[in-house]
Each structure stands twice: as C-alpha cells, then as structure tokens.
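re: ur question from yesterday

yeah so i grabbed the chain u mentioned. its 384 aa long if i counted rite. heres the sequnce exactly as i have it in my notes:
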Amino acid sequence: MEPGRRYRAQWVLPVEGPPIRKGAVLLGGDGRILAVGSDRDVPSPPGVPDEDQGQAALLPGLVNCHTHLELTGFEGLAPEPDFPAWIRRIMALKAGRTPEQLLAQARQGVRDCWAAGITTVADTGDSGAVIQALAELGGSGIAYHEVFGPHPDQLEASMANLERQLDRLARFTGPRIRLGVSPHAPYSVSGPLYARAAAVARARSLPLAVHIAESVEESRLLDTGTGAFAVAWVERGIPLPTPPGDTPLAWLDRHRVLGPDTLCIHCVQAGPADLDRLVHHRAAVAHCPRSNDRHRHGVAPLAGFRARGLRVGLGTDSVGSVAPLDLRGEAVLAGRLAGLAAPELIRMLTLDGARALGLDREIGSLAPGKWGDLVVVDLPEAVD
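ran it thru and got these structure tokens back, copy pasting raw so excuse formatting
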C-alpha cells in the first residue's frame, strides 16, 4: 500500500465545519482521510509526501448529480430549440456511434469532469460505456442504466434486456462505483415498465433515477393526452397513458417508483402537491438549471425543494444540451435564481450532492474516514 499523502493550503473548507486557515489534510494509503485541521495539528508521518498548495483552498471533490458522459463530443450538434425534436436529434447522433466510440466519449467525459473539479458523477445512459470508463480510470459514481419502452407490449422485451445488461455491467462495480436503474421518462416508458423496472431495481438493491417533470409537453401527455409527445405516440400506435389527469410525479407515485432510493432529475414542472409527494417518499432531486434554461422548460422550484428539506444536488446534464460541462456554472445560476449565498452553493456542490445520491457517509465533506477526494482552488492574493 502507498504511504498516503499530506496536503496543506492557505484555507481548508471541510464543509461540515468552519473554514480552517492554514489548514492541512492527511490521507492514508487507501485514499481515505486520516486527519483534517490546522497545519500545526495534522500529523506529518515520516515518508509521507507533504504538498504545499500555497495560496489556495482545499475543498471536497464536487458531486455532479446528473450527467450523460457517453454523449461527450455532442457539443453544438443538436441546436434544435424544440425539445422533442432535440431528443430525436440526440437519438440519431447516438445511433450513429459505435460502442467503441461511445466508450471513448465516456472516457473523455470522465476526464473532463476531473478537470472541472468533479470527482463523483451520477450518470444515466444505455450503452454501459460510462460504468466501464469509471472502472478503467479509477473513477467514482453511480451509473444508472436506462430502460425504454413506451408501448405496454414492449414490457417483456424491455425488461429482459434490462436484466441482461444489469448482469453484464455488474462486473464494473466496486467500492467507489455503483450500478443503478433509470426508467427514462414518462414519454419513453409505459406505466407497467415503470413499475417492473422499479421492482427489479429494489430486488437487486440498486438505486433509481428518472427524468421527470422536465417539460410542459411531458405534463400535457399525462394530464390531457395532448402535445407533441402525445402526437408522436398516436402516430406510432402507442396507447395514451391512462387514466389521464396525473402530473408526472403523480404518475411515478401511481407506479410505485418514488422512494428514498429515487433520484428525480429536473422536476421543473412540480407544484406544491408534487413537492409534498417527494417529501412523503423521501426522494431526492437533481437540479440542472442551465439545461432547464437552454430547453426553455422554466425555472425549477429550488427554494421550495430546500424549504421542505428535500435532498437536492446539482447536475450538468449532457454537453448536447449545455456546453461546456461546468458544475460551478450551474451553482452560479442556481444561486441567482433562488437567492443562495456562497456557503449554501458550496454545500450544494459537495455534501448536498452526496446526500442526494445517498453517498454522504463516503464523500461530500472533508472528515476522517471519508474518501480523500480533494479539489484545489487557487485564491487571489487578497484572500487571507
């Protein structure tokens, strides 16, 4: 085992505690934190490299609660302003990539995250490329495998394929990498498929992630059976959701998808009753303000999420929506929209994101026993 490493800097921000001026962090050879505190108090064991980061702050690695890293390289290739048309364009682009290309894109996506200070991701995709890339590169995160099938007649085929893929991808899991299940969205998954996918995930003790309440068109599909998604379903001979009149989150609830293991992605079209439903089921939210803005979905009720005590983390979505991958940019926009101060945003980028993913015992703050994922942020000379 390696001897570990010691880092010191002008400031250390543990998140679960006040900032430490002239602080230090000691890591063990296994990568976990042994000590955090002032430079004079943190031990300097013989043979352990001691790195001085100078005029900088040491933070926990950032947690990105929603990515599509297999779509890395799609920047600017899907300019369609209409959301259903944009989805069709992304699907066509992805269908034109080989498995080898998707894996190469996923590897680059992981590296892009690291370059942006992101050390843990919650990714959704259906190629299996991201969990393989994380395993190969020594990354950290949850890879939610997507399942699709809007027609009830697709149920058995969709579930058989999902189970095969979960069996295939399990070999890439480890102490820092989890596999999950993602029944994609109400416009691409039937009610019976939602229920079965959620049941299989829980039988395997796997977490769930769902794109939900993202667009007005999605809400119209479930409420009144109208709008662009409904037209596409009718043209393809897919029966409309029954009964009508549900909100997207009520639709999830109807099919027993919501729970403490469920990450609800976007939740832009969520009213007070929907927020109460999330609280009741102790579900978490991945908030992607820049993607919501790019697709003209509106502004998610972040203040309402937080006022109700929901677990909320930030996500970048795919670079096919918004580029470059910039989680700190998501925090800036979230702060402006919800009136949050810097300490609250730092917590959303780190510990709150870890809590949303159920990983806060392992990451999200600098504390003994947690993984030593560190980000170094250079500070102006005036900060002392």
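noticed a couple things. The first helix runs from residue 83 to 95. also The CA atoms of residues 281 and 382 lie 46 Å apart.
anyway ttyl
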